[in-house]
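With this grant's support, we have settled on a layout for protein records. A representative record follows, to show the layout.
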Amino acid sequence: MREGKEESKKTGGGGVKSTCSFQDLGTDVRFRRRGFHKTTERRNEEEEEGREDARDRRTRIFQASDEEVSVNWGDVDLRNVTDTIRMDRRNSKFYNSQLYQEYSETAQNREILSQSCSDALSIYEELPVHLSPVPSSLAPSLPPARRPLPRLPPVIHPHSLSHSGSNSSGTSAKFLPVPQPPQAPPARTSSPRLSVSLTQSPSLWQEIPEVRNSAEFGELTDNQRRLQEVQFEVVTSEASYCRSLDIVVDHFVKSKQLGELLTTQDRSWLFSRLADVRAISHSFLSKLEERVESDMMHFTVCDIIARHCQRFKKVYVPYLTNQSYQDATYQRLMDENHGFRRVVEKLERGPVCQRLPLRSFLILPFQRITRIKLLVQNIVKRTAQGTEEEVQAIKAMKLLERLIQESNDSITQMKSIESLVSLSARVDFECRTLPLVSQSRRLVREGPVTEMMDFSLKETERSVYLHLFNDYLLLSLNKEGGRFTVIDHAPVSELRAENCRVKLHSLEKNLFRLHLNKKALLLSTDTQGDKLRWISAVSRPHPVIDYSTAQDFTQMQCVRAFVAHQPDELSLEKAEVILVHQQSSDGWVEGTRLSDRHRGWTPESHLETIASLRVRQRNLLDALKITTATAAV
């Protein structure tokens, strides 16, 4: 104890070292953990005693248990947390890490590389991730400081969240990326890029001095090491996420210049509950860091994730549901309010923002919640079967999937009701009237087709418009002013689509028959892709794929993010993997995403075929393990 006191005097009177890095602590990390909170409080009280204007920087500690807080975390609690918790960034071991946007792109590029070719894999398996070379083709095509973000789909479909900021569950945990070590933001040049060089050394769990110098480290298997790296990535990536959230809240949401230009409603739609999201994330990060400190060699994170899922639900579901209003408000203000545009662009040029666009910060919660789920999936792949750790990992994965599904359902229902109300006001019925507005009705696909008529009639063809819902099909004539006259409708259970492979008309291509209850229509589309998409949409529901017998499916990975614009399209982020069902001659691919089995259409220009048999087999085995483990618990 005397030696400890003498050391305290040498370091300026604090009870422990003031460093914020694991790597500087080495084997003293456990000593630091024992006296951390109390010493920090005592030091701050001494420094601020007698100063009425001093800020209270003491760490707040929840008195209730994790389970109690997770159940009772309501709106009042969130406001209290937002107002009272001091997020003392000096206490975070990872806070000075890279921004989440940078982490996400770096991670996706590494995952794309891991799927590239079997020859590369045979080499990279022997190297740490940070030493793996990265081809220049993976660099962003545009400087991220002003990289345009795609417009979000006008009608959001049930799978709109399951892609955000994610990687395919087919990506093995062996090749999972890890964030860069804590460092100050680099000075920005006139043409900054989001991604740092992927050859820089990342902050690996195995690089922590206490881990690297431990005799136990050499006894761990490769799989055990990879498991710890994946769990460590949950912590470091959450720190990056918190840092980006702090920037958007402190730099944009709290901007007085911006606030003066926004009405109360616009402010609510634009920023929703970002401050609440930040408060929850900092609390979550604090628990993760405490767990790492408590047992550096064998820490787990999935039980913490599971306990926080109820808290996540309180803030993420409202934020994600607000997404369509947020996007519409942002676009309207940028187009119509020149003062808003000017202030936003000025703030984006600020050094703290690293010249990243505001929208890249607004979509962070979409990206993060799905990224956590995919990291947990990779933890499940690496966790020993039949252990308590596996039970907790599967529990966390299921809770996250349920949260995402609830968000999707909320988004879809809201948008569907709005679109049905709008359509109902623009529709006239020549046939029996069908009430359109229904809580359970969802749009599957809509668009114009050409109906081929009998040759004996004066008009041999006419343009018709199809609205295919999950329960009914409307056949309409398009009128002026965006109105429709419904000439027929039929329940989906009575529909059947048939591909016409023979050219029945000398000048017509892309023909298919649509069988209703008492008649059949011969329809034509402009492209083969439209024809195949209509046939696939009418043929729902599709059979569930059995990954154990899917070896013959072509696999493709996304190399450029795609945002769906039709409900039958499949949004994809970079590095996500799909099983291919069919391709059209005009560049559309129908596939099933490995990570969640959602099916849809994506442009072929955004995809790349996975040539390696070894990689394809690994992807299927990983996906099969996830589905098997989920079904068993």
Observations:
- Confidence is low (pLDDT under 50) at residues 1-72, 119-160, 162-202.
